[in-house]
Automatic annotation (TrEMBL):
The Q motif is unique to and characteristic of the DEAD box family of RNA helicases and controls ATP binding and hydrolysis. It comes from Volvox reticuliferus. Residues 68-96 form the DEAD-box RNA helicase Q domain. This is ATP-dependent RNA helicase. Residues 295-458 form the Helicase C-terminal domain. Belongs to the DEAD box helicase family.
Length: 852
């Protein structure tokens, strides 16, 4: 038999062996040795291996409890090689404490500071257990990792690819925002699933043949969040579908010890491993933390000033609700602070979310404005600052938010903005949690007022104005719904100042607020029950609009989701009279100009439930005059028949005399169109209005030259040119940002592309295989390695002297950049991005044209 034929036969035999679930002799031998070592050297129950003395002589003891490096652990060569490839050599504290217990199959409650390496502490035992059980692709789902958010699931999945790089296991990512039918086709063949709870339950309910009965390991990352009331029903339903006989591991920086929670998961004699329990602080040692007391009306200025004075930093800004994030992002972006801005919240579409996630990972200087969706687990490299612009709901959320910086060995800084009404109780809660905080004050020299610029922006941009209105309502509502009433007192908030700081001329009338304030007065006069009554009123509970930091319902893409808090306690489910209350609200009379703006602009669309909050009387704005809206009052013209005359649209024609046409400013004052244009131009400098006018007077003498029409035309033309220049610069900036975005999208799309974004094969196949049989085997979803046998002992290339290769049509844990599947995958996002660039350019050019 020729050498080639022999090779081919051996390869075929190996395939057959794999399909039958058998391992090579060397693997079998390794597995039995590992089992023995695990049994002999298991740490005593209840011990924390972290305190075990370091081994002087590796051969002297059978215990691996004192292992300091991954090489010293009783784990497979495949895992060791995967870890080495990813440059993981020494164990972190939580890994030293948890791995010895977890590897011998015990249930674990792991608690350690943020950024301390908890992910590997559960991924390694999970992969090892399946390896030792000789799990094959035919054995179905063997391990399940649950996480509260999609981005965290993706991140864990990427770590899993590193650990399992050389293993023959398949892994899937089940998160919302993807095609559930495509997932359903493949989900049954996955050995390890990383999921958000909502999507997993959906598959359990709807995917035929999705079998979880052979599950060996269940992991809850950010366990306290998954166990809290927001996920309660989902989690209970998932657990009901899982076998009771399994290993369960719970990890978080703020671990639960609640007996009730543990009973729900049927933990058996769990090891509680809190490695930093005795530490002076629950936050990373290299994290510097400070707080600043800021009036609500000053918050926007403080935030803007912070961003302007940290242009080279990578910063995450946390706000309470999706709508605030959207408004602050859109408004600040338009004001161009000089550092790229991005936003991340639960209302965004999944591909956009992933794009932002990767962009922020790769950026050196950038501000990410986010809700608590980014608070937990996300491992963005080199974040310099975490700014909590809105107070966190409790000390646990504080700890997770600040944990996005100072991760592993790096340092970082965190700033918390507290309102005077939040200060005392929040500081007490943080002191209880042993969080060290210094007070700092804003540097007056660096203070920059953004409010006048926001006012100018909002006066020109109706959409932004609506965003601001919604942001205001969403924030007040979120404060109202917070359970910790000693910290969050909506009645104490200076709402008018807040509205003004967002650039709004007036405050929408909010019935709930009026009632809370009314009841507050009663409370102050001694009637405590009154406030209780307010808190429990059902009418205000339809849309909390708070982004709780979890992807609770994967199908609710694009909607603001209610929080755990809303489904729990404070805002218990709406009562049977909820519908009536809603009707009552709609029947109420219009309160003020802003409410009318909402009515006119038809903002009461389905996806913005918080408009329900406004007291809007639906009426035909075309058939009756609006009394208290200066803009409408000035502009409306009633005809002889009593009907409103249709007004001719006003235009400014460059190069022609503007005649006697008038336009009106925000306050309803009449302005000549060119004067208005000049005023707008000044406003858009981003300086305070008053300052802008003054500067213009001396700089260009606009108001002097506007006496003569020709001069005014010249002025208008020069203003137009200046705007064109500005737009061109913006276009350039846009292109730059798109380039960055494209790169991020490519990464996200590559993830998507690899097996529709959900599948990975933990493979150790050869890279350059011209063996047709092998390829055929690979394409039908089975192992294609043919050389997984480690008996040939070729060191340096991983076990068995093989180099990993991507299996056809699957996203391999053994991804190689030269793999055909990647090359094909890379094409699509690139052209998609190019299209969007072209579209963006066309739009920008259209804008430029329109201006002329
Ligand atoms: N043994 C190790 N050696 C070097 N780096 C490590 C090791 N373990 C983990 N890391 C790195 O430390 C960083 C933080 O790890 P990880 O995300 O697992 O932290 P965490 O404890 O889960 O944080 P959080 O509580 O925020 O979820 C990651 O970048 C990870 O790659």
């Amino acid at each position: 038999m020729s050498g080639d034929n022999k090779k081919q036969k051996k390869s075929q035999q190996l395939h057959l062996q794999k399909r039958q679930g058998r391992r090579s002799y060397k693997e079998d031998l390794e597995i039995s040795q590992l089992e023995q070592k695990l049994k002999d050297g298991a740490p005593p129950r209840g011990s924390i291996p972290l305190t075990a003395p370091e081994r002087q002589d590796a051969g002297a003891s059978t215990s691996y409890a004192s292992a300091r490096t991954f090489d010293e652990l009783p784990i497979s060569q495949y895992t060791k090689d995967g870890l080495k490839k990813a440059k993981y050599i020494t164990l972190t504290a939580i890994q030293r404490a948890a791995l010895p217990h977890a590897l011998c199959g015990r249930d674990i409650l792991g608690a350690a500071k943020t950024g301390s390496g908890k992910t590997l502490a559960f991924l390694i035992p999970l992969v090892e257990k399946l390896y030792r059980l000789k799990w094959t692709k035919l054995d179905g789902m063997g391990a399940l990792v649950l996480t509260p958010t999609r981005e965290l699931a993706v991140q864990i999945f990427e770590q899993l690819q590193k650990v399992g790089h050389f293993h023959d296991l398949s892994a899937g990512l089940l998160i919302g925002g993807k095609n559930v039918k495509e997932e359903a086709l493949r989900v049954g063949a996955m050995n390890i699933l990383v999921c958000t709870p909502g999507r997993l339950l959906q598959h359990m309910d709807e995917t035929p043949g999705f079998d979880t009965s052979s599950l060996q390991t269940l992991v809850l990352d950010e366990a306290d969040r998954i166990l809290d009331m927001g996920f309660a029903a989902t989690l209970d339903a998932i657990v009901a579908n899982l076998p009771r006989q399994r290993q369960t591991m719970l990890f978080s920086a703020t671990q639960t010890k609640s007996v009730r929670d543990l009973a729900r998961l049927s933990l058996t004699d769990p090891e509680y491993l809190a490695v930093h329990a005795e530490a002076a602080t629950p936050t990373p040692v290299k994290l510097q933390q400070a707080y600043m007391v800021v009036d609500l009306g000053q918050k926007m200025d403080v935030l803007w000033s912070f961003i302007k004075s940290h242009l080279k930093a990578k910063t995450i800004v946390f706000l309470s609700t999706c709508k605030q994030v959207r408004f602050v992002f859109e408004a600040f972006r338009k004001l161009r602070p000089g550092v790229p801005l991005r936003c991340l919240h639960g209302g965004m579409k999944q591909p956009k979310r992933m794009g932002v996630f990767y962009e922020f990972c790769n950026a050196q200087a950038m501000v990410l404005i986010a809700t608590d969706i980014a608070a937990r687990g996300l491992d963005f490299p080199t974040v310099d600052w975490v700014v909590q612009a809105d107070c966190p709901e409790d000390s646990a959320t504080y700890i997770h938010r600040v944990g996005r910086t100072a991760r592993y060995l790096s340092s970082g800084r965190a700033l918390l903005l507290l309102l005077p009404s939040e200060r005392e109780a929040m500081l007490a809660a943080l002191a209880d949690a042993k969080v060290p905080l210094n007070q700092i004050r804003p540097n007056p020299a660096k203070q920059q007022a953004v409010t006048p610029a926001l006012q100018a922006l909002l006066s020109k941009d109706q959409e932004l104005k609506e965003f601001a209105q919604k942001a205001l309502v969403a924030y007040l509502r979120s404060v109202f719904l917070q359970p910790h009433k000693d910290v969050f007192n909506v009645a104490a908030l200076p709402v008018e100042d807040f509205a003004a700081s967002l650039g709004l001329a007036s405050v929408p009338r909010l019935r709930f607020l009026r009632r809370v304030r009314g009841k507050q007065e009663v409370v102050e006069m001694g009637g405590k029950e009154a406030l209780q009554e307010v808190v429990e009123e059902p009418q205000e509970q339809e849309d909390g609009n708070v982004d709780s930091g979890m992807d609770e319902d994967d199908e609710d893409e694009g909607k603001d989701k209610p929080t755990a808090r809303e489904t729990n306690g404070t805002a218990a489910a709406a009562t049977s009279d909820g519908t009536q209350s809603k009707k009552r609200r709609l029947d109420d009379s219009v309160a003020g100009p802003v409410a009318k703006d909402f009515a006119k602009s038809g903002v009461d669309n389905e996806d913005d439930g918080d408009d329900d909050f406004l007291v809007v009387k639906k009426r035909d704005v075309f058939s009756e005059p609006v009394e208290d809206d200066p803009q409408s009052a000035e502009g409306d013209d009633i005809g002889a028949n009593g009907k409103k005359k249709k007004k001719k649209k006003q235009k400014i024609r460059v190069g022609q005399v503007s005649g006697n046409r008038m336009v009106f400013d925000e306050e309803g004052n009449a302005l000549d169109p060119l004067e208005q244009l000049a005023a707008e131009q000044l406003g858009s400098t981003g300086e305070g209005e008053g300052e802008g006018l003054e500067a213009a007077d001396t700089r260009e003498g606009m108001y002097v030259v506007s006496e003569r029409p020709e001069d005014r035309f010249r002025l208008a033309a020069s203003l137009m040119r200046a705007r064109d220049r500005e737009d061109r610069a913006r276009l350039k900036q846009l292109r730059k940002e798109l380039k960055l975005e494209r790169k991020a999208k490519q990464r996200a799309a590559a993830l998507e592309e690899k097996g529709a974004g959900i599948v990975a094969t933990l493979g150790r196949s050869t890279v350059h295989s011209d063996n047709k049989e092998e390829e055929g085997a690979a394409s039908d979803g089975h192992d294609s390695s043919g050389s997984g046998d480690i008996s040939d002992g070729n060191g340096g290339k991983g076990p068995g002297g093989v180099v990993p290769r991507v299996e056809v049509a699957h996203m391999g844990m053994a991804i190689k950049s030269d793999a055909p599947v990647m090359a094909a995958g890379a094409k699509r996002p690139a052209s998609a991005a190019a299209m969007s660039l072209a579209e963006q350019e066309a739009l920008a050019l259209k804008l430029l044209g329109a201006r002329r």
